[in-house]
Here is the input.
Amino acid sequence: MEMKKLSLVFIVIGIALIGIILKDKAVSKEFSEEELTKVSQGNIQVTAVFLNPKYPDLTRPTFYIRLDTHSGDLYIYDMLESVTLEVAGKRFSPVTWKEDEKSWGHHRYGFMEFPEEAFDEINREMNFRLIVNIDGERVLEWKA
Here is the structure.
């Protein structure tokens, strides 16, 4: 009888582990490589890459953001004031903007992080968007 109980426990644990492994793989496949990157054209091209699926150790929603233009100075825009993350109708302001030292007036790029609580919302919804107020309002949207 004890052997049957022990076998049953191992079977249940095995099924649970398989479920966890398959769930993790499904989550990592929610967005294809192409779906991670969004681009908005205009006088200023805005490119944003959602990094968390590629870097699961990140604890905050993190985006690589790049601005490109052929005219004007992109340093007139305050990145922390110009970008908002919206998930399930809730808006989150960025907590950090780490600009690459190679950025310059026509090409700015860096990493933007949002609060951890936004990450919980993203995991629940898997639909979210960045609202970028640079050269007009740009909406970059991710849908799983």
About this structure: The chain has two domains: 1-30, 34-143.
